Amino acid sequence: MIKKIFFEIDGILHAISHFGKSFKIFKVPLLFSIISFTLLAFSIYLSGLVIGTSLPIMATLIIVSVFALTSILPISVGGLGAPQLIIALCFSSLGVSPQMAASTSLINTGITLFSTFFMALFFLRTSAKQVLQTIKVL
User: Fold this and answer.
1) Whole-structure pTM value
2) Quick check: 44 and 104 in contact, CB under 8 A?
3) C-alpha distances in angstroms, 54 versus 59, 108, 112, 130?
4) Is the CB of residue 46 less than 8 Å from the CB of residue 54?
5) Alpha-carbon dihedral 100, 104, 107, 109, rounded to 10 degrees
6) What is the pLDDT of residue 18?
7) How far lies 88's CA from each of 28, 49, 95, in Å?
8) Most buried pick, 31, 60, 70, 131, via CB within 10 A?
């Protein structure tokens, strides 16, 4: 049992040391993650403006961090429910009504799902021949 624990710890330390050696590879995905996070915060801010609620920018950045973490937890179906509850709780502490905060989050989720659906259709259409060839091979 102890040997297995040390084996796992060694594997983790090896992965961390490998990350340090190949940090150049992770610069581009890290940059894309920062851009994605900034766009998500801006999207939440604009969604708040749409429903008539002015959200503080710095608070939006902090709350979006918590939102991003809760949206990846497997505690809700399809990422709906828990993140909206977290946003409602956080924004209500800033004086925003929970209904407005949840509406902001749902609007943002709807826009994201809507745009993702149409981008998927676009890519499916442009690569239909590749998909059909792949299905024929399987």
Assistant:
1) 0.59
2) yes
3) 11, 15, 21, 46
4) no
5) -130
6) 67
7) 33, 16, 10
8) 60
